[in-house]
Amino acid sequence: MNMKTRKINFLLLFTALLFGFLSSCKKDNTDIPVTTKPEIGTLEIGSDNNKTVKAGTDLHLEGEIVAEALIEKIEIEIHQEGGSFKFAKIYTDEKYVGKKNVTFHEHIDIPSEVPAGQYHFHFTVTDKAGNTTTVESPLTIQASDVKASYKLIFTEVKGTVHGNHFHDLADKDNVEPSSIIFDNTGKALAGHAHLKPDGIYKIDFKQFDATGQEIQGQYIKDKATANLYKAFLTGGAFVLNSGNSLTGAIFQPKETTYGDGSAVTGAIETTGITTYFTAGKDNAGEKEVAFVLRKFKDSATKATVTRADWNRTDYVAKYPGDDILRLTFELHAEEGED
Questions:
Q1: Would you call 33 helix, strand, or coil by DSSP?
Q2: How many CB atoms lie within 10 A of CB 154?
Q3: Cα(224)–Cα(322) distance, rounded to whole angstroms?
Q4: pLDDT digits 0-9 by tens, 218-272
Q5: 83-111: b (≥16 Cβ within 10 Å) or e
Q6: Disulfide engineering: 105 pairs with which of 62, 65, 112, 222, CB 3.0-4.6 Å?
Q7: pTM over 0.70
């Protein structure tokens, strides 16, 4: 076979391969229907599909979705009939996006301050071809009968990991905080901690007096006062983080100022009225935990509490004092959670 013949054969082979590749791409694109709208099966809205939720609790949602062109996003909107309150949330989690058949199951926190009344509920699925399907329903929100004594507010943030603490913490856009409300005994009345295992969350601790005013600032009103207090997260048997990849758990108290405006300096001085937390992939699943604020017998004790001590099982014996509050709750660290 001469050189000219080889060149012609190579050109024919290359042309065939190119044609096959382009045909394959064209076929792949045409495999996605562009006119078939997503289908939403019976959607449960509220407990036993009663289309009712009480302010200060969470709204149960569950239903089957089939999207021939694959899911792009899922949107929820709740707006008040004849009022101004409105709530919207968009789900673009990997457990939904790009999937053809999924079970949508989420719990949406309804703040205790939401006004009672009649609402309109919209549930919209958009596929990758731009088709949308919406289910609408009336929704009744009942007045809250929960009187919160304490609250933990979880907000996902950005940051990097360095061993047992975080660097470069910053707010994320379009993040909806979630809350757990507790009575005066520390029992959770509404909400759970539904977190991404590798997500980083700011936890704001709130305490309320009989009139509903926030009083958590009493523990960090100045350095002398704050020296007697430290927050712990107990239970759960967490695998703690050690390296610079986020696989284990980190709980980092991180106030920056005291109530009098003076600066908090260093990890030892922080108390835990504001903390940052990640469960880490090694701790995926459900855990029973407690947020504890401990008052030490003397101010020298706090200086012995390091960043690695937040989940100690022997903290009571190790750090003499009293737990002045203990907030117990379920922590669900699962992929796709918000």
A1: coil
A2: 22
A3: 18
A4: 999 999 999 999 999 999 999 999 877 779 999 999 999 999 999 999 889 999 9
A5: eeeebeeebeeebbbeeeebebebbbbbb
A6: 62
A7: no
Please name which of 336, 337, 296 lies closest in space to residue 315, comparing C-alpha atoms: 296
Residue 37 corresponds to which tokens in the numbers above? 């709208």
Domain limits of the chain?
A: 39-142, 150-333
For the CA atoms of 228, 233, 238, 244, the dihedral, rounded to the nearest 10 degrees, stands at -70
Residue 165 corresponds to which tokens in the numbers above? 């603490």
Of the candidates 141, 174, 131, the residue with the CA atom closest to the CA atom of residue 155: 174
Question: Tokens 């696989």 sit at which residue?
Answer: 247
Distance between CA 167 and CA 276 in Å, rounded? 11
Query: What totals of helices (H) and strands (E) does the chain contain, helices first?
Result: 3, 20
Q: In the numeric block, which tokens belong to residue 6?
A: 């080889």
Which architecture, in CATH terms, is 39-142?
A: Sandwich (2.60)
